[in-house]
Write a structure and sequence with these properties.
By secondary structure, the chain is an alpha/beta fold. Helices cover 48% and strands 14% of the residues. It has 11 helices and 7 strands. The longest helix is centred in the last third of the chain and has 21 residues.
């Protein structure tokens, strides 16, 4: 785990549904976050939380349960409250994507908390006042309420991408076909299409140029050319076997 991610804690204030606690733990696990703090959860530990945590049971096992938000934020250098509702006395407000690099910058020197409110009403004004920054997840203005675990997933994702650059796995690369191999393919294809009476050499129209443009967009690989040549060879063989004996 990256050191900065180790200093990010997720704080859930008064979560009422244990399934959301489990879902949040699972979201955290997928994004490299391990530290979960629960403020006055309605039910915890709970079988439903464990069931929805899937492979993140270690996060539930190490979760801290506290009775006040002050205890949850103790020792942090920055608290970021997640809220969709405009507040009159909120501090700096920014999209969660912009808040993520700020969280990581502060995490270089100490712990940072991502603070989420209860499912029904989100963070109270008193809870949000304990946060130096407010982050919001851009949504359709008519439907701005997110499930708690989903909100944790989005915030954790933005933190992870900001920390890692969002690199993903790469598809394997294969050897490209040479110009000579492609020209041999077209020559072979032209003969086969003429044998099928699909192409009339004396009146070719635009068939071959269009096929060239099609395959140019595909940027053929060597193995792909071999496959196409194999298909053409099989067609050639069928055409040869289909000829009457006197034509052979």
């Amino acid at each position: 785990m990256m050191p900065a991610l180790e200093r990010i804690r997720v704080v859930l204030c008064a979560p009422s549904h244990p399934g959301n606690i489990g879902g949040a733990a699972r979201a955290m696990q997928a994004m490299g976050l391990q530290r979960l703090v629960l403020v006055n959860p309605s039910r915890f530990p709970d079988a439903e939380a464990s069931a929805l945590a899937a492979g993140a049971l270690s996060i539930l096992a190490s979760a801290r349960v506290v009775t006040t938000i002050e205890a949850a934020l103790s020792g942090t250098v920055l608290a970021i409250g997640l809220s969709a509702r405009p507040r009159q006395f909120a501090g700096a407000v920014m999209p969660v994507r912009a808040a993520a690099p700020e969280a990581l910058r502060f995490a270089q020197s100490g712990d940072v908390a991502l603070v989420f409110g209860t499912e029904m009403s989100g963070l109270s004004n008193a809870e949000l006042e304990r946060c130096q920054m407010v982050a919001t997840i851009p949504t359709d203005p008519q439907h701005c309420s997110l499930n708690l675990a989903a909100a944790v997933q989005v915030a954790a994702y933005e933190i992870y991408v900001a920390a890692t650059g969002g690199t993903v796995w790469s598809a394997p690369t294969f050897k490209p076909a040479t110009q000579d191999e492609i020209e041999q393919l077209f020559a072979h294809g032209e003969r086969t299409l003429a044998g099928l009476n699909f192409l009339y050499p004396r009146q070719p129209k635009r068939l071959m140029p269009r096929l060239r443009r099609l395959f140019a967009r595909a940027r053929l690989e060597k193995e792909e050319v071999n496959i196409l040549r194999g298909i053409l060879a099989r067609i050639d063989q069928r055409l040869l076997n289909a000829k009457p004996a006197r034509e052979q």
